[in-house]
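Q: Hand in one record:
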Amino acid sequence: MFYIFSLDFSLILVKNLTYIPGGMNSIGEACNDLKKEYDACFNAWFSEHFLKGNTNDSMCAPLFKVYQQCVKKAMKDQKIDLQEVNKVILGTENEKQPPKVS
């Protein structure tokens, strides 16, 4: 089974992800209700449209934009640099490497 989730505000397909009912809270407390609304819309779209072959995701786009703006504001308020969050680390020399065994 495949699930879609957003890390950097883009959709990613992931295989065998465990879904937790109710999920977790948003990064900003003020965004929790928006997240719940978007999650409900997304879950409906996923089960009623995507799984039936309709990949048009515009159904939840307006809610996503409002939620995304709230998250960006919460990140700014918490002094989380969006550029740092989006930095590609995996697969580069900046990725933390395990200690070398002698």
Observations:
- The radius of gyration is 17 Å.
- Strands lie at 2-6, 11-15.
